[in-house]
Amino acid sequence: MTRDSHTDDESTDDRRREQASSRLRTDGGTQAEGADDTTLDPWGSSTVSDYRNLFEEFGIEAFDEVLPEVPDPHYLMRRGVIFGHRDYRPVARAMREDDPFAVLSGFMPTGDPHIGHKLVFDEIIWHQRQGGDAYGLIADLEAHAARGLTWEEIDEHARDYILSLLALGFDPEAGTLYRQSENRELQDLAFELGAEARFAEFEGIYGFDGETDVSHMQSVVTQIADILYPQLDAPQPTVIPVGPDQDPHMRLARDVAARMRYFGVTEAYASFETDDEERALLAEAYKTLSEQHPGETIRCGDAATYLDNERDRDATDVDATTKDRVITMLREAGKEPLRPRVRFLDRNATEEAFEALIEAVDGEKRVYDEHIDAFELDHEAAAALAREVELAHGGYGFLPPSSIYHRFMTGLTGGKMSSSVPASHISLLDDPEDGYDKVRAATTGGRETAEEQRELGGKPDECPVYELYAYLLADDDDEFATEVYEECAGGERLCGGCKEQAAELMESFLEEHQDKREEWADRLDELDIDFDSDRAR
């Protein structure tokens, strides 16, 4: 590696280093050249033009918010490559408290595994090493139904994916590997889950229409079953590491998991049912009136009057229609006390399970035709009780599955990384010398001339080569990743030397990875997974 000295004064140098250091951890807002908008297509080759849009449009949370709760976080988490999550806190808590949890992700065997797939491999392996039950699956039914691959092609690619997962450190003795087509338990679960999925949802989420074949729709239900499969024997927090394009599957899986439950558990304040916005109004009214009249019984009619008066002062952000609806319900309830309670909603419970829950709720309670109100349980205890009764009466008791989302890697030629453009990506099966050559030929975020680079600094945030360091080549060495970033942004590092160093590291990585693949290739017979499908070709 060659380094060029600074041509700027020390104050400029310090300022650049400070700016570079503050930018090392990305915030989810980087624009990718040639990227799509935020339409998420699980079967496309989409990227995302602005990751921040996902927070607002789809309810994905920024991973930075949960990062302090994660013990010994993976470098992809620390560097902001994993930028978002859905409900990851139960998984983080399970890791901290040494409780059971699981990790699962799958691979559609449509081509060679490449360095983009390595992100998912690494995330599965890290969670396994943190104590999780780890599952790696081959989505061969999806590949056949959605992409039209032959079973012969699928068999070949499936073997390659599993070999790379093993070579990177997956422990097959402590984890589970399977193919969708060979897992009867999975297919039975998919059949049961299909009863809670509707074609209208498939239209809205995936854009399916009258031309969509039934096998493609069936593959979606199978993927929902994959996501919930680690909980088949017992409920446990489960994380699914994926790219953001797979988020439609996660949203649907969470919805279906909730519908499969015997009981829903919510907060309530009166006998009538409310949605989230309505409950927020009731909570606000109860809190204010309780503070104004300590020790007195707050009645629904009192809350109706309070909210009606607040309407003129515009004290809340709730729309007028919702407020009118709540006021009407409160007035109809009249003298009924307004009190916080936990509500058990009957979703799919058998009559025996519902009666068992009534018996299991201690303390003051009110029993209605389709729900039970408990006044001496908090939400966490109520949820645990509902799950216990459900499991005792033949239900699944699914916990909502969690997910984490990583950025798409930029193609080495700029724009998207595409398996159909060999120069844009590096396959884990590439000859190491070819990997070296691809990195040497890669687009960079450098300036037009070396002089401009020294004067203005490079643009590592727009550089596919820097991504290689941050995502792969620096491995767990944050100091090295920071050094590369700062030297580039500060003008010390020129593109030629930087690419040479990256190319050499990539060549070494591929050599080591393929040696480990060869070691595992001789041991595949030891695994409980078949790479020779007996399905019609």
Report what the structure shows.
This protein is of the alpha/beta class and 537 residues long. The chain folds into three domains: 10-27 and 414-512, Orthogonal Bundle (Tyrosyl-Transfer RNA Synthetase); 52-260 and 400-406, HUPs (Rossmann fold); 264-392, no CATH class. It has 21 helices and eleven strands. The protein has a seven-stranded mixed beta sheet, with helices on both faces. A four-stranded antiparallel beta sheet has the order 7-8-10-9, covered by helices on one side. Helix 7 crosses helix 21, helix 8 (184-194) crosses helix 10 and helix 17 packs antiparallel against helix 21 (495-521). The protein is globular. The relative contact order is 0.14. Mean pLDDT is 88; it is low at 1-46.
CATH superfamily of the largest domain: HUPs
Beta-strand content: 5-15%
What is the CATH topology assignment of the largest domain? Answer: Rossmann fold
Low-confidence stretches: 1-46
Radius of gyration: 27 Å
Helix content: 40-55%
Total strand count, please? Answer: 11
Organism: Halorhabdus tiamatea SARL4B
Motif ('HIGH' region): 109-117
Enzyme class: ligase
Coiled coil: 499-530
Topology summary:
Elements lengths: L9 H14 L28 H7 L2 E2 L12 H4 L3 E5 L2 H9 L4 E6 L7 H15 L3 E6 L1 H8 L3 H17 L8 E4 L4 H11 L4 H8 L7 H15 L9 E5 L4 H14 L2 E6 L7 H17 L7 H14 L6 H14 L7 E6 L4 H10 L4 E3 L3 E4 L4 H14 L9 E5 L25 H9 L9 H7 L7 H10 L4 H13 L4 H27 L16
Parallel strand pairs: 3-4, 3-6, 4-5, 6-11
Antiparallel strand pairs: 1-2, 2-11, 7-8, 8-10, 9-10
GO molecular function, one term: ATP binding
Protein name: Tryptophan--tRNA ligase
InterPro entries: aa-tRNA-synth_Ic, Rossmann-like_a/b/a_fold, Trp-tRNA-ligase, Tryptophan-tRNA-ligase_arc
